[in-house]
Amino acid sequence: MHTMRLLLSVAAAVAIVTTSATAHVVIPTEFRQVVSDSSLIVRGRVTDVRSVEGQYGIDSIATVAVENVIKGHANGFVYVRMPGGQIGNIRWVRAGVPTLRAGQRAVFFLRPGITDTSHRPIGLSLGLYRIQPDPRSGRPVVEPPVVAGMNAPVSGTVTRGDTRRKALPVAEFESLVKLVMATPPAAPGTTPSSPGRAVPRSGIGGGR
């Protein structure tokens, strides 16, 4: 019985479900939380990365040229700070922290820093969705949120390039973010056993 409830709970966390009659998008709670916790969401290109001394080691600060502001307010550039970097012969690495390089594009989910003017990605890797060319069409696409039981294993290692995860055109991914922002939060009493909430797909458009 417990196993059945677990399977039903996992099945509820569907990222995108499309049917001919009633198309819906079900957004996992984790992604909703990332969007909600972000005070600034931008699409941009990394123009420069430099390493500085941090509170617990070495940090990297990436200069991001803003291409589009999805949430919040930003001028031409924002500064994204993450743990890890190299100063001289000393290199500091933190597991699970993404590495940024000049020229890379991404959608950044950010919150302001406490001690400086730079921003921090929400949940480090959770707050960074890289934009890369589609291998077939060459158009820029974004990997969708990973959802256990739908486009990733319920347990074990998430496989990079899993065919169950279909990349989204940039405009469609940004429309999904805006849809999350516009959708009312789940009613009080929502439990982990109902991690997603269906909303009409009509809010997503363009980008193809």
Sum this structure up briefly.
By secondary structure, the protein is an alpha+beta fold. 16% of the residues lie in helices and 36% in strands.
How is this fold's topology laid out?
Blueprint (H helix, E strand, L loop, with lengths): L1 H11 L3 E2 L6 E5 H9 L2 E14 L4 E14 L5 E7 L1 E3 L2 E3 L12 E8 L6 E3 L6 E6 L6 E3 L25 E2 H13 L13 E5 L8
Antiparallel strand pairs: 1-2, 2-13, 3-4, 3-8, 4-5, 6-7, 8-9, 8-10, 10-11, 11-12
The succession of helices and strands, N to C, reads HEEHEEEEEEEEEEHE
Count the beta strands: 13
Strand content bin: 35-45%
CATH topology title: OB fold (Dihydrolipoamide Acetyltransferase, E2P)
Arithmetic mean pLDDT = 74
**Helical amount:** 10-25%
Indicate the structural class: alpha+beta
Number of DSSP helices? 3
Give the class-level CATH name: Mainly Beta
What summary fits the major beta sheet? 8 strands, antiparallel
Q: What's the domain count?
A: 1
**Which stretches are poorly predicted, pLDDT < 50 over at least 5 residues?**
1-25, 147-152, 190-208
Coarse shape: globular
What is the CA-based Rg, rounded? 18 Å
Calculate the terminal CA-CA distance, rounded to whole Å.
43 Å
CATH architecture title: Beta Barrel
Protein traits:
208 residues, alpha+beta, OB fold (Dihydrolipoamide Acetyltransferase, E2P), eight-stranded antiparallel beta sheet, three-stranded antiparallel beta sheet, 3 helices, 36% strand, globular, disordered N terminus, disordered C terminus
What does it look like?
By secondary structure, the protein is of the alpha+beta class. It has a single domain (34-181), classed as OB fold (Dihydrolipoamide Acetyltransferase, E2P) (Beta Barrel). It contains three helices and 13 strands. It has helices at residues 2-12, 29-37, 170-182, and strands spanning 16-17, 24-28, 40-53, 58-71, 77-83, 85-87, 90-92, 105-112, 119-121, 128-133, 140-142, 168-169, 196-200. Strands 3, 4, 5, 8, 9, 10, 11 and 12 form an eight-stranded antiparallel β-sheet that branches. Strands 1-2-13 form a three-stranded antiparallel β-sheet. The longest helix has 13 residues, at 170-182. The radius of gyration is 18 Å and the shape is globular. Residues 1-25, 147-152 and 190-208 have low confidence and may be disordered.
